[in-house]
Amino acid sequence: MTFLLAIIIGVLYAAGIYLLLRRSMVKVIFGLIFLGHAANLMIFTVGRLTKGSPAFVPEGASQVLEPFADPLPQALILTAIVIGFGVQAFTIVLFKRTYLTLGTEDLDNMTSTDQLPGGKS
């Protein structure tokens, strides 16, 4: 299972980086989404995959019995999901404003903001 997740994480990272290098703003946003999901899956995998073993201390015991699921990576993933949504929302708004100002979605055509459409500067 860990090997399969490693392959999936690698594919998500590769697709995310590939899309970040494209010329379209929509592809850049999808690249950010893929990178966020890959990072979350990597944190989840590093926290050890255990099935049906919560991190609770049994009654009468002094510590958690092995194997147990580590709750810290799960909490970090929840935080990363919220931060990822914030970054994605900011990027969408930034690209929309850029498109409305410059009139193009192609990142290569966005060379300068000195001369705005309509002769405004």
TrEMBL record:
Q: Name one GO cellular component term.
A: plasma membrane
Recorded topology in the membrane: Multi-pass membrane protein
Q: Which Pfam families match?
A: Oxidored_q2 (PF00420)
Please name the InterPro entries in this protein's record. CPA3_antiporter_subunitC, NUOK/Mnh_C1-like
* Highest taxon above the source species: Bacteria
Intracellular or extracellular location(s): Cell membrane
Key words of the record: Cell membrane, Membrane, Transmembrane, Transmembrane helix
Family of this protein: Belongs to the CPA3 antiporters (TC 2.A.63) subunit C family.
Q: What is this protein called?
A: Na+/H+ antiporter subunit C
What is the source species? Answer: Prosthecochloris vibrioformis
